[in-house]
Every structure is written in structure tokens, then in C-alpha cells.
Amino acid sequence: MKKIILDVDPGHDDAVAIMFAAASNEIDILGITCVAGNSILENTTQNALKICSFIDRTDINIYAGSNKPLKRKLVTASHVHGENGLEHSGDEIIIPNKYKLQEKDAVDFIVDSCMQNKGITLCPTGPLTNIAKAILKEPHIVNNINEIVFMGGAAMTLGNITPAAEFNIYVDPHAANIVFNSQIPLVMMGLDVTHKVLVDDTITNDILSIGNKSSKLFRDLINFYSIFHKEKYNTTSSPLHDPCVIGYILNNKLFSGKKANLIVEENSELTMGKTVVDWLEVSTRTKNCLVVNDVDSDNFFKLLKDKFSLLP
Ligand code: RIB
Ligand code: CA
After folding, report:
1. N or C: which terminus of the chain carries fewer CB neighbours within 10 A?
2. Does ligand 1 come within 6 angstroms of the Cβ of 214?
3. Nearest Cα residue to 145 out of 301, 268, 2
4. Domain total for the chain?
5. Predicted TM-score (pTM) above 0.90
């Protein structure tokens, strides 16, 4: 069983990632930490509580983390996820009164967990602010963390929030560089691979055929989430970014890439948040990250369906 901490900014694809992980007996979710990103922290925390309530997993502790990046002004993605960060056509999800955020701050939870347990895998699917703050607060956690499998960046593809940058890294490039320079083993699930995990009506209907309430929520979430992508890119499908992190945790053989140097632009406004990946090894910089750029998407979606069939 793999011990993970999910660090999220739900967000529709974060929500699917939470459901995917919670359905998997191979994964022990030690806790879910929330960060501002797709929406403000008040929304991302509420949305995490909603998703865990919906799948009857109020045993999972949820922690509030950073409400803004280390240095930059918060940029959200309400144009994709709606004002509350998780807009959808389904019924409002009720959070049981007893299910509250933990008192402990997310950063302290990450530090304490990583100091008390060796071999934790951190799974951030939002801006890396919480992770960076944990490393700054207690540098010794670096030696205990198994690896960080994160959704973010773009090695050889264009950005999705600026021409140069992917959203998670763009929101907090300074945090990203702290994480990328930490010596912790890194696995980057960037747009190069997440843009190959494309959910369309065929896939949505296949998941829906499971017939449980979680498959219906998946349909409702994707229906809203796909509005932006279909209009913006004139496509019939949408990239399922964050669940790629969980797919990798469950079966990394579905994915491929190469180790390369990864560093982030944190000064130029033109290329702010650009993940500069030395894929062609033209520098002598340390290969600090496994940069994933390919996936067996058919078997990814089979795995996703298998796990969703285990949910309520
Ligand atoms: O660029 C896509 C990423 O930004 C995803 O994690 C999405 O949820 C948003 O956080
Ligand atoms: Ca996210």
C-alpha cells in the first residue's frame, strides 16, 4: 500500500483525482491538503470536503493550506471551474455537519507526517505553495519523502494560462523552484502527457454505464469542465490532468518519459512560470525530474473505470 498526501485545488479534475485515489485499496491517503489555485482557498477546502462527503469518505482528514502564492498575486481559473471552483449540473453536495477541516494547518500536517513516516509520496495537483512552505519550514523532510508526483508544467507543449506556462506552475513559480531544487525525486505529469488523456462523450458514457452515483457525478463534473475546453479549443474532448498523478501511482507502466533537468522561469513576466526542460541534454544541469510525455490512455481509462466502479 502506498502512503500518499494529496495536495489539491479542486477543481473538477482534482475532484476526479480524489475519487480515483479514494477508490483504490492500493493507496493509503494520509490526508488531503488544500491550496488556493483553481479557486480561492475557502472554495478549494469546501470542495474537497464535498467530494469526500459524496463518496462516504469522511474518514479522510482535510487541511487548509496556503491562500496565496509565496510572492505573486493569486490567479484563479474560474473561467474553467466556475466561481466556486466545482460548478456542475448535479445536485448540491451536502457536507455532514460533523465533517470539518482539521485545526492543524496543511503545511504543519505535511511536515509532521513526513517527519514521522518514511516513504510518503506527495501528490500535488495544484500550485506547489504548500509543498514549498513545508520544505522551507523543515528541510529534513526531504530525506524522508519517497517522491513527489505532481501535475504541472509543460516540457515541449505550449502553456494553457499563458503561451509559455501551465497554470499550476504559473500561479506559484517561486514555490515550484523551491520544490524542484529540493533533491526530492520528482515525477512531472505535465501538459505533454495530460493532453493525451482526453475525456470525451464516449468515455464519459462508458464511465456512466457503471450506474453508481459517482459515475453520475463524473458525468456532471465533466459536462461543466468541458464547456471551456470545447469553446476555447473547438474540440470534443477535455484533458483529464490531475487523475494522471493517481494513474501513475497505481500503475506507472502506463506512462513513459525521461529524466531531465527541470527549472522554472521566475523573473521574466513574458515567460513567467515556464518549465524549462533540458530534454535534449544540451546543458550539464542535474537531471532532477522524470518528465513524463506519453501514456497508454486506453488502459488509463480502463483503470479509471475499474476504480470508479468501486465507489458508491
Ligand atoms: O493546468 C492544469 C492544472 O491546473 C490542473 O491541476 C487543474 O486542476 C489546474 O489546477
Ligand atoms: Ca488542480
Report:
1. N
2. no
3. 2
4. 1
5. yes
